[in-house]
Amino acid sequence: xxxxxxxxxxxxxxxxxxxxxxxxxxxxxxxxxxxxxxxxxxxxxxxxxxxxxxxxxxxxxxxxxxxxxxxxxxxxxxxxxxxxxxxxxxxxxxxxxxxxxxxxxxxxxxxxxxxxxxxxxxxxxxxxxxxxxxxxxxxxxxxxxxxxxxxxxxxxxxxxxxxxxxxxxxxxxxx
Length: 175
Description:
The protein contains two helices and 14 strands, in the order H-E-E-E-E-H-E-E-E-E-E-E-E-E-E-E. By secondary structure, the protein is an alpha+beta fold. It folds into three domains: 1-31; 36-103, Roll (SH3 type barrels); 105-174, Roll (SH3 type barrels), CATH 2.30.30.
């Protein structure tokens, strides 16, 4: 009986050890993670200690850098101050929104000849400005029909309403 009691105790200890090990692995993999939103920088940009150009520079991000922001603050800060908080290697900083493009919608002009930003989705609409090669644009919506043999998308090139227009999808590429 002593032998079986020792075996039972050893089995229970082994079971508890396995259970503790498995629980720690499982809880580590299913623990709620912080939610982040990814941006791509559209130019070389200063990461500031506060949401103002008068504040100190924390670091500098290069053009095309993948920046992350806590998703809980993105919408509030984006709509109020035109700044987004981002995670830098040396802390949390702030970048102007016109220097950020949401990564999943971020495209760049791919033709060296430049690309016309138009007031509407066809070549008959007025040219608002010419976008240079490599200019970042954020796709807002896709135009359902093909006009003038081109498929157009509505894009944002900056942080203001006048920075919204249409371009042909043939001349942009995803970043």
